[in-house]
Amino acid sequence: MTFNIPRPVADLIDAANSFDTDGFMRQFAHDAMVNDRHRQFWGYDAIRRWCEIEITGDHVTMNPVEVINHYGDVIVSAELDGDYDKSELPDQFILQFYFTLRDDKIVQCILLPIGGRQLSKATSTSEAATPFAARVPSSA
Fold this sequence. Notes:
The protein has 140 residues and is α+β, with helices and mostly antiparallel strands. 25% of the residues lie in helices and 36% in strands. The protein has a six-stranded mixed β-sheet with strand order 2-1-6-5-4-3. A hairpin with a 2-residue loop joins strand 1 (28-36) and strand 2 (39-42). The longest helix has 13 residues, at 43-55. It is globular and about 40 Å long.
């Protein structure tokens, strides 16, 4: 499947799939921020260390299944695979990557499970939000 993916995001995906830390890092602004599972990594050195451990270190591969261009931001839903602990994950593990770009660099990347995270119990907020959640149509 072919998607219209901005060059820095496409290059990041290619670098991840090649386990190329330097290629992965070339796509980020020096003061970028990555938020992965509610953990924030600010700046080049912190993002590089995260990448070395949890992306290229775990041999993570990304297979985009949907791309949405939304007001200049890019949301990539990608099926992931790799050498990480999959014991509590579904067979088809898809994450959404929310990319913010400036001057052909990634300045922010937020990783979220598709459909949000599972809550341990229903709350008034989760129950109220559920009926209003709507899928954004793909622009690819």
